[in-house]
Amino acid sequence: MNQPITKSSLTPGLARLIELLQTLNFGRIEALTIRGGQPVFDPPPRIIQKIKMGADNAPRPEMGYADFRLKDGVIELLEVIARLKEGEIRSIEVRCGLPVSAEVEWCPKTPAPPSRP
Q1: Across the chain, where does the E strand assignment appear?
Q2: Position 67 pLDDT exceeds 60
Q3: Cβ contact 113:106 at 8 Å
Q4: Which of 33, 32, 47, 41 is nearest to 12 (CA)?
Q5: End-to-end distance of the chain based on CA atoms, in angstroms?
Q6: What DSSP assignment string belongs to 93-105?
Q7: Alpha-carbon gap, residue 110 to 108, rounded angstroms
Q8: Predicted pLDDT of residue 49
Q9: Of 52, 63, 74, 101, which is the most buried if we count CB atoms within 10 A?
């Protein structure tokens, strides 16, 4: 993806995922179903929030912004989702409202796992 991507350019499902990352701030999203290259929230994923003692555990300030450019880590996660097409993201680790790693379950019929080209 060569051009800057903004939240307003996303599908409703992808925008909802970005908002979930920002709301969680620190923790994990588990068992996120992907269908047609889009996150599905029925059934809802499991959310595990990491609470840091003595720290601000509130949602990210970006939650209040109508639109903004997406960071590279978010764009990379969206690319993984698009390539996966059908399957489950078992876990997305979130730090400062951004995805830092993901565990992806994919079908063995697929020629290769959904890695970056």
Answers
A1: 27-35, 38-40, 46-49, 87-95, 98-105
A2: yes
A3: yes
A4: 41
A5: 12
A6: EEETTEEEEEEEE
A7: 5
A8: 96
A9: 74
